[in-house]
Design a protein that fits this description.
The protein is an alpha/beta fold. It has a single domain, classed as Alpha-Beta Barrel (TIM Barrel), CATH 3.20.20.300. It is 47% helix and 9% strand. It contains 16 helices and nine strands. A four-stranded parallel β-sheet has the order 3-2-1-9. It has a three-stranded parallel β-sheet with strand order 6-7-8. Strands 4-5 form a two-stranded antiparallel sheet. Strand 7, helix 11 and strand 8 form a beta-alpha-beta unit.
Length: 374
């Protein structure tokens, strides 16, 4: 569909394009089929639960693509290290923290892009551009340490920038995360809302640095927003409940900062709204409405079918009541259609080539191990 055709659809179909959902199982069964028919989501994210074999994954992505009226974003979190959804079907990939120069970052991204396109994906929720420097690594939540490139903001730009450039040259859309920066977090947003206690100067000069530089140097198609609070920032809002508002639900962070100050024109995606940092205080329905009003194009709800339906219904009702103007939905659809029009088709399925690529990943692992003297 072209933009005019998308914008002329019934409102429920337009709203569906703003949902990036997770689904259960390893094929389209009746439950998944009903959910897809009812929501018609703009994107679907795969997790380890969806991966059994290479052939199964490719059939799954082909089936999802063939039943969609509008080309879907088919994504996965394939960072490497702790976040490696494909380890059942390919050699586990090295973590970002193991990448020590741009050439290794390029090799990792090149291998990742080809593997993903053979499996039918057109997007990867990577790279992480959170800055975890030496000081922050002493108190940062442990999982994030290995997911971050380098130990300085310059390292992040150099290594993550090369990874992203190569990934997208390989035909897979990337996604910078987690805006505006989780490097200073001491808690995991999967469990509770992190309060990042840094100064306005550190926030601006360190956490925003990768976004400022990469937005200027490269074509950035998507950014994923973090669930976090920044008490030291003048942008920090307080919600109606008197609590500090998560950055992912904040107009100040998503629209004022990301859109207006940093001039980002790509897709703004929430991190999973089912994380404890959000559902503990807001619930899926309210959070979904808040995320749209904050300025997001895509709402990630990645685990429960009931949560997807609740979020969709809440946004639909908010549009019907006038709380969210339809023009706000259309603004996101314009950005969604623009990115989707640039998506590359899958590569032919080739199990022998996947085996070769898996061996090349093993070679990269061995090279990194040798360079570190392990």
């Amino acid at each position: 569909m072209n933009l005019n055709e998308v914008l002329s659809q019934p409102i429920e179909k337009k709203i569906g394009q703003m949902f990036f959902i997770g689904i259960s199982g390893t094929e389209i069964d009746s439950g998944v089929g009903d959910l897809l028919s009812d929501i018609e989501p703009g994107g679907i994210c795969f997790f380890s639960r969806n991966v059994r074999s290479a052939g199964q994954v490719r059939k799954f992505t082909d089936d999802l693509r063939s039943r969609a009226q509008i080309e879907p974003l088919l994504s996965i979190d394939q960072e490497g290290g702790l976040v490696d959804r494909l380890r059942r079907i390919s050699t586990p990939m090295p973590a970002a923290s193991a990448i020590n120069d741009p050439s290794n970052a390029a090799v990792l991204a090149e291998l990742t892009a080809e593997i993903l396109r053979i499996l039918g994906f057109n997007m990867n929720f990577a790279p992480v551009v959170d800055v975890v420097n030496e000081e922050r690594s002493k108190y940062s939540n442990g999982a994030l340490n290995s997911r971050a490139f380098g130990r300085s903001k310059e390292d992040v730009v150099l290594l993550a920038g090369k990874y992203l450039e190569t990934l997208q040259n390989g035909g897979v859309a990337g996604c910078l995360k987690h805006f505006p920066g989780l490097g200073g977090a001491k808690k995991d947003a999967h469990d509770e809302l992190p309060f990042i206690e840094i100064t306005e100067q550190e926030f601006d000069e360190t956490d925003l640095f990768p976004y400022k530089v990469l937005f200027d140097k490269q074509k950035i198609q998507a950014v994923m927003a973090a669930h976090a609070c920044f008490p030291g920032s003048h942008l920090q809002e307080t919600g109606q409940d008197g609590k500090l508002l998560p950055s992912s639900l904040s107009f100040n962070f998503v629209t004022t900062l990301l859109r207006e100050k940093l001039n980002f024109e790509g897709l703004a995606i929430t991190d999973d709204l089912e994380m404890g940092a959000i559902v503990n205080d807001y619930g899926i329905g309210k959070a979904s409405v808040m995320a749209v009003k904050a300025g997001h194009d895509l709402l990630a709800i990645c685990a429960n079918e009931s949560a997807v339906r609740e979020g969709f219904s809440a946004v639909f009702n908010a549009v019907q009541s006038g709380e969210i103007p339809e023009s706000r939905i259309d603004a996101s659809l314009r950005r969604i259609v623009k990115v989707k029009s640039q998506l590359k088709k899958p590569l032919p399925f080739d199990s022998a080539r996947l085996t070769e690529l898996s061996e090349k990943v093993a070679e990269l692992n061995n090279q990194l191990k040798y360079q570190y003297g392990g």
